[in-house]
Amino acid sequence: MKFGGTSVGDTEKIKEVARRLVAAREAGFRVVGVLSAMGDTTDELIRLAHEISPKPQAREYDMLVSVGERISNALCAMAIYDLGHEAISLTGSQAGIVTDTVHGKAKIVEVRAQRVHDSLDDEKIVLVAGFQGVSSAHEVTTLGRGGSDTTAVALAAALGATACEIYTDVEGVFTADPRIVPGARKLAALTYEEMLELSASGAKVLSLRSVEFARNHDVRLHVRSTFSQADGTWVVDEEDPVLEKAIISGVAQTDCEPLFRVREIDAATLFARLAAASVNVDTILQTSMEEIVFSAPLEDRDACKQVLESLGVEWSMRDDLGKVSLVGVGMKSHPGIAAKTLATLGGIGVESQVISTSPIKIACHIRTEDVPKAVAALHEAFELERA
Ligand code: ADP
Ligand code: ASP
Ligand code: MG
Fold first, then answer.
1. Is 43 exposed, middle or buried (0-12, 13-18, 19+ CB in 10 A)?
2. What is the distance in A from the centroid of ligand 3 to the CA of 46?
3. Phi and psi based region of residue 323 (left: phi greater than 0; alpha: psi -120 to 50; beta: remaining)
4. 77, 212, 89: which is closest to 154 by C-alpha?
5. pTM exceeds cut of 0.90
6. Measuring from atom 6 of ligand 2, which residue has the nearest CA?
7. What would the pLDDT profile of 241-282 be if each residue is shown by its tens digit?
8. Which of 175, 174, 194, 187 is CA-nearest to residue 381?
9. Cβ atoms of residues 32 and 1 within 8 Å
10. Ligand 3: distance of its center to the CA of 63 in Å?
11. Which residues of 5-21 are buried (b: 16+ CB within 10 A; e: fewer)?
């Protein structure tokens, strides 16, 4: 059971989370909780790091920002004792979350779950600090923003859990961000592939790595509200009977996705260098030998610039663009989705700078200021508010 930052925003909310964990324990389950840092704690720690240094040293950055999760999990363990149950809070390292050595966005490579198993055998509710691990070089690492989702899924996989429940501040996965499209509809279920595309396209309700992990290890995910008992959204295998088989399952957006143009460079060299700098390249376009266009997430912008500078090539960047993406497994077998997408954007005067597709996604880079109205228009054009 994973609880996000808003769900543990103050001590009253943490007590409520403790009651929920205890209720699951009393229903007969062995329970592992993964809590995020309280409210804006992580933002605040990151702000402090940048206040003290323009370029915080990577190891110390992780030592600092991993602290938030220790606070919330320890507090919750105390609350559980007061409810008459035993609990133990563990850091990522103590829980056996082993990662690679990339500070700030480490990948989980192994979960050594013996200590968690032992504590469960001792009848304890086990609380694991999300978003962090220990590297093969014995250093504390963090998993990137939203990384507590990944901690929870990795533990669920390692422990052979029945399911991984992601408790958050909305009732599930919606056809669009409910904060942007008020008419967005909660989905009962969707496939790992669809959720991967939505997460990769900016739907932060689940972190991308967590969905990847769930798909690779067959962990069924249940995204649901911390503040109600209602059923949420299941993220499952394509064969699962709970699926609705909609053509389009949702639209996602990012407000800013930097777009780079690079001239006169060998593509293999360019992308090898970006990969070595741990840049997560998104769209890649090459229509001639002279020019390559690619996009990368905002958090990788500085790393991209450094690589391009060091290559000594001619390049330019636009960071006044965001991206809207329409996602659905039904796209594979229904022609005309791209046509309708572009007609819809054209109809509201929005021009696409770059269009990219996968079998189940169509994505358009558009001006940042156009993103909200484009999301709303696509949601309406494809009638996503209706089941
Ligand atoms: P937590 O702190 O629980 O991890 P996040 O803020 O990371 O929560 O993710 C939940 C938020 O994701 C919601 O408040 C919502 O605004 C946003 N979101 C974006 N796209 C979607 C979507 N398609 N469905 C549901 N929520 C979405
Ligand atoms: N606290 C971390 C963050 O804000 C991890 C998480 O919440 O999942 O990104
Ligand atoms: Mg999150």
1. middle
2. 16
3. beta
4. 212
5. yes
6. 146
7. 778 777 889 999 999 999 999 999 999 999 999 999 999 999
8. 175
9. yes
10. 20
11. bbbbbeeebbbbbbebb
Q: Which residues' Cβ are closer than 6 Å to ligand 2?
A: 4-5, 36-37, 42, 68, 130-131, 145-149
Q: Relative to the CA of 207, which ligand 1 atom is closest?
A: 7
Copy the structure tokens of residue 122: 């001792």
Which is it for the CA torsion 361, 363, 369, 373, positive or negative? negative
Residues 370/353, Cβ–Cβ less than 8 Å: no
**E strands present in the chain:** 2-3, 32-35, 87-90, 97-99, 108-111, 125-129, 132-135, 140-142, 164-168, 189-191, 221-225, 233-236, 250-254, 259-263, 284-286, 291-295, 314-318, 321-327, 354-358, 361-367
- Nearest-CA neighbor of 279 among 294, 264, 261, 291? 294
Q: Which residue is closest in CA terms to ligand 1's atom 2?
A: 4
CA distances from 32 to 77, 142, 155, 188, 246 (A): 11, 20, 8, 24, 33
Model confidence at 132, pLDDT cuts 50, 70, 90, reads very high
Contact 155, 161 (CB under 8 A): yes
